[in-house]
Design brief:
Oligomer: single chain
Helix content: 25-40%
CATH topology of the largest domain: Rossmann fold
CATH architecture of the largest domain: 3-Layer(aba) Sandwich
Largest sheet: 10 strands, mixed
Shape: globular
CATH superfamily of the largest domain: Vaccinia Virus protein VP39
């Protein structure tokens, strides 16, 4: 109770999909940071500033996330090439973390049923440069029937009474009540059951909540174990991070000793928010999944135009699928392109839009693939960076060794944006929704 009343320190992850950790930290050298001992990409901020206004955040190079919230994905341990489901994905903190550990390979299905929360999910997945994702909108309780025995790994970060968020905001106390806990537990039992049906034999599933109510934690996992004899609860250990075992008694109810394999994260142990985790596997015979038939489409337009414009070897796009949706070209992994079982809200990352014989590449795409540009790129200084990210124009830059048209703007050799050069000025082409109002 004493710990939960103390404010939380700010924490974040570096996004190694877009740049190396050392390059990102160089942009943040003005801040006092402390690395997290349990997770090499996680850092604590030792001062009070609005991290969301930092340049690194705007560029998608960091993701502001609470420490305990990072643990479920660390425990899930997704691998490149896996087929992964994030059942309750918005706003995308854990989805982007999963993609990072997958190195943007394989297939990551991000499911979100709430249309309002969907917008924040799309924004964050794009900002972080995900191209191995497909976003769907399906009731979580249905997915086990639609895709049985399908996923190698599944994260069920379930909606809950959110008692663990009290350190961040006391507002949750106004909605707290036993009826709400009981209502959430009913939803959670439906989600964990459906997710388990969708898990392949031998796969791994992590069930997590940001609450400490046993009705929503151990009781939900006990419900799954009773219904499915093939479900096995695995022990959880996190190096250099303290977790406590799950409880076996609560309010007159008793649970199997197997529930001690669950993990409780308490605020006084690591100075974090409270959290709950359970790691579950499925016993059974692993069936071979149908091979994917991913391919590259429209390579003669988007890939060719981009490669010619910036002197990038077209082989750089080998192993990806490039396809068109309305007027925009997209890029994804072949597994994403070939996913057909559920209608997609969105898949992959915007490649760019073709204008005649030129292509206006997408900013986030350029940050992933523009590093190898040999021509039509321009290195800017810090004061110019601020102008570019605000959507302004750089004047008096004539006599540059560049062709008129779209160029890649770089800062400290990192591709950060698309601009348009007219022979005298460089106009920022950063999309309005991504521009910074102030820095």
């Amino acid at each position: 109770m004493e710990s939960i009343q103390k404010p939380l320190a700010q924490s974040f992850r570096v996004n190694t999909l877009k740049a190396q950790k050392t390059e990102i930290l160089l942009l943040m050298k003005d801040l006092k940071l402390r690395p997290m001992p349990f997770y090499s990409d996680g850092f604590l901020l030792r001062q009070k500033i609005a991290l969301g206004n930092h340049i690194a955040h705007s560029l998608g190079l960091i993701y502001v996330q609470e420490i305990a919230s990072m643990i479920p994905v660390v425990v899930l341990d997704p691998q490149p090439g896996d087929v992964v489901l994030d059942l309750c994905a918005a706003p995308g903190s854990k989805t982007t973390q999963i993609a990072q550990l997958m190195r943007n390979k394989g297939l990551l299905v991000a499911n979100e049923i709430n249309r309002k929360r969907m917008q924040s999910l799309i924004y964050n997945l794009k900002r972080c440069g995900l191209l191995n994702e497909i976003i769907i909108s399906l009731r979580g309780q249905r997915i086990g029937n639609v895709l049985p025995d399908y996923f190698d790994r599944i994260l069920v970060d379930a909606p809950c009474s959110a008692e663990g968020t009290i350190r961040r905001s006391k507002a949750v106390l106004y909605h707290w009540g036993l009826k709400n806990i009981q209502r959430m537990a009913k939803i959670q039992k439906g989600l964990i059951t459906s997710a388990f049906r969708a898990l392949r034999p031998g796969g791994a599933m992590v069930y997590s909540t940001c609450t400490i109510a046993p009705e929503e934690n151990e009781a939900v996992v006990a419900y799954l174990l009773e219904r499915f004899p093939e479900a096995e609860l695995m022990p959880i250990t996190v190096l250099n991070f303290k977790v406590r075992p799950g409880i076996t008694k609560w309010q007159g109810a008793s649970f199997s000793n197997r529930l001690r394999n669950c993990a409780r994260i308490m605020p006084q142990d690591n100075d974090t928010a409270p959290f709950f985790l359970a790691r579950i596997t499925k016993r059974g015979v692993r069936k071979q999944r149908v091979n994917y038939l991913g391919k590259i489409e429209f390579a003669g337009s988007a890939v060719e135009l981009f490669s010619q414009r910036f002197g990038i070897d077209p082989k750089r796009f080998g192993g990806y699928s490039v396809f068109q949706d309305k007027e925009m070209s997209f890029i994804s992994t072949p597994m994403v392109y070939s996913f057909w079982e559920i209608k997609a809200v969105r898949r992959g990352l915007e490649f760019g839009k073709i204008y005649g014989s030129d292509i206006r590449a997408d900013n986030d795409f350029v940050q992933l693939f523009g590093r190898d540009a040999k021509k039509n790129h321009y290195e800017i200084k810090e004061w110019q960076l601020r102008k570019i990210l605000k959507g302004e124009t750089l004047k008096a830059v004539s006599r540059l060794n560049m062709n008129k048209g779209f160029i890649i703007v770089t800062y400290k050799k990192l591709p950060i944006a698309i601009g348009r050069y007219n022979g005298k000025e460089i106009k920022s082409e950063v999309r309005r929704e991504r521009r910074l109002s102030s820095l």
